[in-house]
Specification:
The complex is a heterodimer of chains A (322) and B (326). By secondary structure, chain A is mainly alpha-helical. Chain A has a single domain, classed as ABC transporter involved in vitamin B12 uptake, BtuC, CATH 1.10.3470.10. Chain A contains 14 helices and no strands. In chain A, α3 packs parallel to α8. Chain B folds into 2 domains: 139 residues, Nitrogenase molybdenum iron protein domain (Rossmann fold), CATH 3.40.50.1980; 145 residues, Nitrogenase molybdenum iron protein domain (Rossmann fold, 3-Layer(aba) Sandwich), CATH 3.40.50. In chain B, 39% of the residues lie in helices and 16% in strands. Chain B is α/β, with parallel strands linked by helices and 326 residues long. Chain B has 12 helices and 12 strands. Classes of the chains: A mainly alpha (322), B alpha/beta (326). The interface between A and B is medium-sized, with 25 and 26 residues.
């Protein structure tokens, strides 16, 4: 049953991706979209579909999968249903690094990508070194670092207004205009990390039951938690580097995945890796059609979708506890 | 002897005071000469011949080149590559009273300089970021900023006029006009007959769009003076009426009728990231003008004075020279 659901989700992903490649500022007839995919001839229509919207769809799939799977991992190891990748300070670390780069005059698509990854890594190392003792301490340390880094970022923006000018474009996550940036390495990193997440899913099933039970079942809790944290950092750091900060995917998709997969972390990872991209592709289509001219950054569309889902999740868990 | 010294000192003091009084009286008429100047912030009474001027924004370039009596300026880095060596030196030496943005104005620094006129060369919307009360407590303030990009011609003249430095300004303007007329004749057979398109450099690559500039924009208004026609933009006020930011997907649609394409280069002759994003896009190669080898980049499109615009004309002439080859 779960397998069929996953296949259906995959079919949905393909449909949404193709529909997304047919929608944009330039009108391309549906038949031409299919022809571009099957028999590319280099015409402007085909260039728009395959060279502009194609990479954008690939980016949405990779970023959506990375953030959603990172969300599953973080919710599992912290046993906190409201956990999301940003809780470890990863997003704040990336943002801070990009602003520092702007202040120092290091500013290009390449440098932003690198700085975002380095910022994410440094932030999560700091959080892990302080909060590795328990999930609660981990979350608290991550939240504290997020606040500190956000404050520093705002301070730098006030002191160096030109950094604010640059940062205001970066800090609202978007998939537009990213087709020329060097995406290959982050995409490969995400692919490898997704496989890594599946490989540790069996041990995560045990960790999800609590440290004591997990140890009784023979799981090496600290080692698994460390591996999961590394994966969360790499996945969310690479996703943020590719598209800028996009919230809520890592929060809401694990809940949707849990509805379809039940308690199995492995299946949750599988569903999240498919549903995250579906959600981001839909939000990206929304970002292109909501305004008569221009685009709404996908992070804003996602925030509109994410708010109600957060309320839904909070109500649902309140009911369970009652 | 002691009394004699006292008398001599008293006499010297009286003579000195009389002399000072005489100077004050002589200077009085000159200092008190004022005039009413029409600025963006209203009709302002300013000194007829200011002696100590503080300039910000676009007024920095205009007043440096007009050799106005500047005592302090804001940062205005965009114009630095277009200055002569002497003006570059002066720009570096003058005390900086503000950053690049109006909200970075340092009121205490301005007060320290004790100017008799402050010329704010910022667009009207940016005036909201300035505490006018604080500034007018220091000296008369005239705000003279561009509403549309091509207005730099009138704006820079007005700024020089306020600072009492029109002499050199008119000289430079005449040199520009002469050069523009020469080039207009030179390109009379190729430019006015065709529609052109221009990719501007103020776009934001991360948004997946490009800057399309029409007649009268930063990238086009100087080329307009030699007969280039980039068509008319939307009916809107300010920069929105002379430029737009369409999605990169619309590149071929926007420039399908352009027989010649131009784009803004940086001062080093290379395109910046926003323009490079367009030039590297596969759709760029599909444009008729590009296929016809009629795409040219030129520098100094951010010129906001006639002295700077002379450099723009040189760059345009160099870029468009292939059009004259038969």
């Amino acid at each position: 049953m779960k397998a069929w659901r996953l296949v259906a989700a995959l079919v949905l992903l393909c449909v949404v991706a193709v529909v997304g490649m047919g929608i944009g500022a330039r009108h391309v007839p549906a038949g031409e979209v299919v022809r571009a995919l099957l028999a590319y001839n280099g015409s402007p229509d085909h260039i728009v579909v395959l060279d502009l919207r194609g990479p954008r769809a690939v980016l949405a799939i990779a970023v959506g999968a990375a953030l959603a799977v990172a969300g599953v991992l973080i919710q599992t190891i912290t046993r906190n249903p409201l956990g999301e990748p940003g809780i470890l300070g990863v997003t704040a670390g990336s943002s801070f690094a990009v602003v520092v780069g702007s202040v120092l005059g290091v500013s290009s698509q390449y440098s932003d990508l690198l700085l975002a990854i380095v910022g994410a890594a440094v932030a999560s190392v700091l959080v892990y070194s302080v909060g590795r003792v328990s999930p609660l301490r981990l979350v608290l340390t991550g939240s504290a670092l997020t606040f500190v880094l956000s404050g520093c970022t705002t301070g730098l923006q006030l002191l160096f207004p030109h950094a604010l000018d640059k940062y205001r474009y970066w800090h609202v996550g978007s998939l537009a205009g990213r087709e020329q940036q060097p995406n290959l390495v982050p995409l490969l990193v995400i692919a490898v990390s997704l496989v890594g997440a599946l490989l540790i899913s069996r041990q995560l099933n045990a960790v999800a039951l609590g440290d004591t039970v997990a140890q009784t079942l023979g799981a090496k809790v600290q080692r698994v938690r460390f591996a999961a944290l590394v994966l969360v950092t790499v996945l969310s750091g690479a996703a943020t580097a590719l598209a800028g900060p996009i919230l809520f995917v890592g929060l809401m998709v694990p809940h949707l995945a849990r509805q379809l997969a039940g308690a199995s972390v492995g299946w949750m990872i599988g569903f999240a890796a498919v549903l995250g991209p579906v959600l981001l592709l839909i939000a990206d289509i929304g970002s292109r059609v909501l305004l008569p001219t221009g685009e709404v950054p996908v992070a804003i569309v996602m925030a509109f979708l994410g708010g109600p889902v957060l309320i839904w999740a909070a109500r649902r868990y309140g009911r369970v506890e009652a | 002897m002691r009394n004699l010294r006292l008398v001599a000192a008293a006499a010297l003091a009286v003579v000195s005071l009389t002399a000072c009084g005489g100077n004050q009286e002589a200077a009085q008429p000159e200092q008190s000469q004022t005039r009413v100047f029409k600025a963006d912030n209203g009709d302002i009474t300013i000194p007829a011949k200011p002696k100590k001027v503080v300039a910000t924004g676009y007024a920095v370039a205009a007043l440096l080149e007009a050799d106005a009596p500047l005592v302090g300026i804001s940062e205005f880095k965009r114009a630095v590559p277009m200055y002569s060596d002497a003006h570059k030196k002066k720009y570096q030496e003058l005390p900086k009273v503000a950053g690049e943005l109006a909200k970075e104005t340092n009121y205490e620094e301005i007060a320290k300089l004790d100017p008799d006129l402050i010329v704010l060369g910022v667009p009207k919307p940016a005036l909201a970021d300035i505490d006018m009360k604080k500034l007018t407590d220091i000296a008369p303030v005239v705000a003279i900023g561009p509403g549309v990009p091509s207005a730099w011609r009138e704006v820079s003249r007005k700024q020089a006029d306020a600072a009492g430095a029109l002499g050199k300004f008119d000289e430079t303007k005449a040199a520009y006009q002469k050069k523009a007329d020469e080039l207009k004749k030179k390109y009379a057979d190729v430019l006015p007959k065709v529609k052109m398109g221009h990719v501007g450099s103020y776009g934001e690559v991360a948004k997946g769009n490009f800057m399309n500039e029409f007649n009268g924009s930063w990238g086009t208004s100087i080329a307009n003076d030699i007969g280039a026609n980039y068509g008319e933009g939307a009916k809107a006020e300010g920069a929105k009426g002379v430029s737009e930011y369409p999605s990169i997907e619309q590149l071929t649609e926007k420039f399908k009728d352009a027989a010649i394409l131009t784009y803004s280069n940086g001062p080093d002759g290379n395109p910046n990231a926003a323009v490079k994003y367009v030039l590297d896009n596969p759709l760029w190669k599909e444009l008729p003008a590009v296929k016809d080898n009629k795409a040219f980049g030129f520098s100094f499109t951010e010129a906001s004075t006639f002295q700077e615009a002379l450099k723009t004309l040189d760059s345009i002439d160099k870029a468009l020279a292939p059009l004259l080859k038969k």
